[in-house]
Amino acid sequence: MDVGTGRRGGIPLAILIGLGTFLDGYDLLNISIVLPFLVHFMHLSPEMQGLLGTFTYIGGVFGALVFGVFSDLRGRRAALLSDIAFFLVSSLLSAFVTSPEQLLVLRFLIGFGIGADIVSGPALLSEESPTLRRGFLLGISLIMMPLGGLVSALLAYVFFAMGLSPNISWRIILGAGAVPAAIVILLRSRLPESTMWLLRGASGHRRMPFSEVWRGYWRMLIYSSAAWVGAGTTSIFTIFTPMLVSLRGGGYGIMLSTVLLLWIFATLGAVLGSLMLDRAGRRIVLMASLAGLGFAFWYVAITYRTPGLIYLLSISMLLTFLVVSGAYTVQTEVFPVEVKSFADGIAFSLNRIANFMFGALTPIFLYTGSIARYLDLVGVFVLLMAMTVLLTGIETARRDLEEIERMARK
């Protein structure tokens, strides 16, 4: 099979797949920018703030695993046409909650839909993309994630500038996620099925049990999981940057302006990733960005009480999305078609667990004044993930998926 030509993957398909990551980015930020209002109106403890900020990640674990199996058995298209419904309904209902417990359930369901989408969409795009442009196209779809965060921040900024009541604006910000979700469902009605899945993964073909995946691809599971777990530490920045900034003083307006700046840098990081993945290689991008991110955690700890914090957070957000672009791409390349989404789901679910654990602890360390020590330890952990990527990773740039599959089994 000539995997370098004749594929249907292109920028339109990358954007169509990327609309799912747009919803992820919107969700990442919308809860964090309304948390100050929820604290006031619902009297949230630091523990509940941490749970509300990160509970979508727990939903993502289940969504990634359940829909990973579904995508491998029933096809990428079937999964992608159904998973966004969880986001649509739950986002809409979020505008009408009356208690943090109700919102917690809806955050879980939103995360379920996001996790399902991120193991199905990139698999289809990877399988349909020309070899020499696969990293670029996957990077393009990933750019939609920080753009979703930017839209969320811009919406909050407009409401703040209008003087809209906080008790109304937080409901609109959470519920507005249903609008792009409905658009995604309509646009995906013309989504093609993966040609590689039809050839190798459709019903009737032999299923590969997980024990065989582990025996044949254990190194790739460690590689992709280390990349995703390293990226999972960044919920400290993506979810709780507004809290990091607001606790230093300056008011809600200054916090929103800062968040907009940081998510512009996040978008630049995703753009840089899309340009570098094919040129420099996935493994190099992952190692360098993880190492840089580890040092960035240390420098944020040092500058937390100084004006230099904003500059370090900006660089950290850029590095965050360099890491994510690498992890997002590698997960789709190093496993065979028959179990690609399920194996991706394992690696991605570990990312969501890391997101939850590192993020949920952040408000506690912030309020107890121990955030600097916490960030130091997280920096050490990220550097360990960079070393793991160095020791277990293979280079997948400019290689077709069949060749990568053979390399991954060695």
Features:
18 helices; globular; disordered N terminus; mainly alpha; 410 residues
Describe, in plain words, how this protein is organized in 3D.
By secondary structure, the protein is mostly helical. The chain has a single domain, classed as MFS general substrate transporter like domains (Growth Hormone, Chain: A). The protein is built from 18 helices and no strands. The radius of gyration is 20 Å and the shape is globular. The N terminus is likely disordered.
User: What's the number of helices?
Assistant: 18
Number of folding domains?
A: 1
Instruction: Report the strand count.
Output: 0
Largest pleated sheet: none
Low-confidence stretches: 1-6
How would you summarize the topology of this molecule?
Layout: H1 11-42, H2 46-74, H3 76-82, H4 84-94, H5 100-128, H6 134-162, H7 166-175, H8 178-187, H9 195-201, H10 210-232, H11 235-238, H12 241-246, H13 251-276, H14 282-303, H15 309-330, H16 340-368, H17 371-392, H18 401-408
Helix pairs in contact: 1-5, 1-6, 1-7, 1-8, 2-3, 2-5, 2-16, 3-5, 4-5, 4-8, 5-16, 6-7, 6-13, 6-15, 10-15, 10-16, 10-17, 13-15, 14-15, 14-17
